[in-house]
Automatic annotation (TrEMBL), chains A, B:
<dbReference type="Pfam" id="PF02767">
    <property type="entry name" value="DNA_pol3_beta_2"/>
</dbReference>
<dbReference type="Pfam" id="PF02768">
    <property type="entry name" value="DNA_pol3_beta_3"/>
</dbReference>
<feature type="domain" description="DNA polymerase III beta sliding clamp C-terminal">
    <location>
        <begin position="256"/>
        <end position="378"/>
    </location>
</feature>
<dbReference type="Pfam" id="PF00712">
    <property type="entry name" value="DNA_pol3_beta"/>
</dbReference>
<keyword id="KW-0239">DNA-directed DNA polymerase</keyword>
<dbReference type="InterPro" id="IPR022637">
    <property type="entry name" value="DNA_polIII_beta_cen"/>
</dbReference>
<keyword id="KW-0963">Cytoplasm</keyword>
<dbReference type="InterPro" id="IPR022634">
    <property type="entry name" value="DNA_polIII_beta_N"/>
</dbReference>
<feature type="domain" description="DNA polymerase III beta sliding clamp central">
    <location>
        <begin position="137"/>
        <end position="253"/>
    </location>
</feature>
<dbReference type="GO" id="GO:0003887">
    <property type="term" value="F:DNA-directed DNA polymerase activity"/>
</dbReference>
<feature type="domain" description="DNA polymerase III beta sliding clamp N-terminal">
    <location>
        <begin position="1"/>
        <end position="126"/>
    </location>
</feature>
<dbReference type="InterPro" id="IPR001001">
    <property type="entry name" value="DNA_polIII_beta"/>
</dbReference>
<keyword id="KW-0235">DNA replication</keyword>
<dbReference type="InterPro" id="IPR022635">
    <property type="entry name" value="DNA_polIII_beta_C"/>
</dbReference>
<comment type="similarity">
    <text>Belongs to the beta sliding clamp family.</text>
</comment>
<keyword id="KW-0808">Transferase</keyword>
<keyword id="KW-0238">DNA-binding</keyword>
Length: 380, 380
């Protein structure tokens, strides 16, 4: 194998695929990075037991020449040293060459590196998944839906299924939902076309996979193709192939959790509310659950407070847009509230309560595509 | 005590004094931050067993009003929560008030915090040190001398005296020197005036103190006053007072270590050499001592290389400005070389060798105020 390639373009691809590479792997060869030089360009691969990422660099793109010379072949390089060597190359182009003894020579300017490579034959075969169940989404939309839900997945392995985001296509909508059983985040968007071939089985993607995917994808309006089988999901753009396993198990029925009526409704400025909750949380941090209180007043204000007897207490009065319905005193985790308010893109939010001991809902005032639910804590 | 004060100015002072505050202290009251409101402004104090930092905020400075209202008094506040509360205050000014029950009320906009304070009577008295041995330096010069030496102090407590920077005034020069016994860094500047009262005892300042001082000082040409007693050193500007203990013990005589003659002299471009050494170090990192090799060639080039049999090897040929004297093959720690080259401000450096097993010297080509010495490693 031999390739003379643009350093920065190669570095970008390396950064994508190394997101899937772990030095702690049960399969030693997977701690390496695979380089596959073809006639049309080079493909890099990184993989672990959960995800596989492939990034392709074409000979040229939109008139920009990335690769000057190429001879076909494959090699596995050290995923710790190879990226550092490329990053610190003195010139804009690097020459990478491997021989039959699996020796890899990397040359740039007057610097010459010789790395011990590994046999590409030992690297597991990555098959593109075959399925009719595939659809397209704009990348910005996908990233947004991930951002609005993935923070709410469980970080505990007690119920592994809750560490993933559940994806469904129903009622003409694509639905993402995540819950750790104390709070829930849901994002729904109308489907442009009917997905008649969406899997009937449950699709639950590990939250970690979605976080990594989000980091790799640029914010563009280009579309990404999503294909699903019983146990895998693939995200594909022109030069990127991202494959994740799906979580096994039954995802809980979450729609029943969402109250259909409400007794107290508050409209508030998102940013003001977020900052007041953040301040109240300052003295609530050392409580393991960050509990703060919210209380409605008669004069279109709410009071947000917390109390840690050993340290001190905080009280803040916040003027809101409106308060309708019953008086309310409720306690909840400031962390969950901060997480929920941070991903609201609208200036104002609507909070719907059905009593101090019932879950409450936070929504944008302008639309219904986003819903956050938080379970209160009993303190009053 | 009561004060209505500009939030950002207060925050700046808090950030300075908290550098001296540790939550792990043998004297519990020192985990707090002291606020002392006087007629002329407020003084904040943070302290641990090594350093004490005082920062003063005057009522106004250069026409800018920092304090609107002040009532004299003292209080100790929680150094973890108080800074966070001020930082997240909703308005540009905050009101801080303490009562006889040591309750501290912090108010900004509609947010009101109540913190449990501590008794200022329990806080140790900080005395300004009394000495004739004091001199002034421009702040940028002091910061520069710290930067050029402090990285070379020892991080091991085997010989505690080596964890500090030795300061002397001799031969009409102010001299900073640091060594961990494997390398040495020295910075000398001509004295503007004679320091007849410079202490005859050894002055060794903990490296940690100098690092903290450097972080607090802005880069200005203003002067800082330095006062020294047998066991303490104070750095003072108009609004800052920084006090550090000195290290006890005998600092080694370092001047003998510096070779007076040389057998091989290389002039090289600082940046090119730094980058080549950095690249060679990539494959030498997992050796515990980062050893790389340097070899002179006959054609005004040097070869920098390293070899880790399990990973691979690297070789780079670097064209230098000149090579004079004997041929040379030498091995040394790339980390020490990188540290030394990073603080050279000049485009070119002069490296003076006296053989493969003798310490070598790195200097700027333009002047003699800066000297770095590195001990080689035996490999050839």
């Amino acid at each position: 194998m031999k390739v003379i390639i643009n350093r920065d373009k190669l570095m970008e691809s390396i950064q994508h695929v190394t997101k899937a590479i772990s030095s702690k792997t049960a399969v030693p060869i997977l701690s390496g990075l695979k380089i596959h030089a073809k006639e049309t360009g080079i493909k890099l691969t990184g993989s672990n037991s959960d995800i596989t990422i492939e990034s392709f660099i074409p000979l040229e793109e939109e008139g920009i020449q990335y690769i000057d010379e190429i001879e076909q072949g494959e090699i596995i390089v050290h995923a710790k040293y190879f990226p550092e060597i490329i990053r610190k190359s003195p010139k804009d182009t690097v020459k990478i060459e491997s021989d039959e003894q699996l020796q890899v020579t990397i040359q740039s300017g007057h610097a010459e590196f010789h790395l011990n490579g590994q046999d590409p034959e030992e690297y597991p075969q990555i098959n593109q998944i075959q399925t009719d169940a595939s659809f397209e989404l704009p990348i910005t939309l996908l990233k947004n839906m991930i951002k609005q839900t993935v923070f709410a997945v469980s970080t505990s392995e007690t119920r592994p299924i809750l560490t993933g985001v559940n994806i469904r296509a129903e009622d003409g909508q694509l639905k993402f939902v995540a819950t750790d059983s104390h709070r829930l985040a849901a994002s729904n968007v109308p489907l442009e076309t009917e997905f008649s071939n969406f899997p009937t089985s449950q699709v639950v993607i590990p939250g970690k996979s979605l976080n990594e995917l989000s980091k790799i994808l640029d914010d563009t309006d280009e579309k990404i193709q999503i294909s699903i089988t019983d146990n895998q999901i693939a995200f594909q753009t022109e030069y990127l192939y991202f494959l994740s396993r799906l979580l096994d198990g039954k995802y809980p029925e979450t729609s029943r959790l969402i109250p259909e009526e409400s007794k107290t409704v508050i409209h508030a400025n998102t940013k003001q509310l977020l900052q007041a909750v953040d301040r109240a949380s300052l003295l609530a941090k050392d409580n393991h659950n960050n509990v703060i209180r919210l209380q409605t007043n008669n004069d279109q204000t709410i009071e947000i407070s917390s109390n840690s007897p050993e340290i001190g207490k905080v009280e803040e009065e916040l003027t809101v847009e409106s308060i309708d319905g019953e008086e309310l005193k409720i306690s909840f985790s400031s962390k969950y509230m901060i997480d929920a308010l941070k991903i609201m893109e609208t200036d104002n939010v609507k909070i719907e309560f059905t009593g101090a001991m019932r879950p409450f809902i936070i929504k944008p005032t302008e639309h219904d595509q986003l819903l956050q639910l938080i379970l209160p804590v009993r303190t009053f």
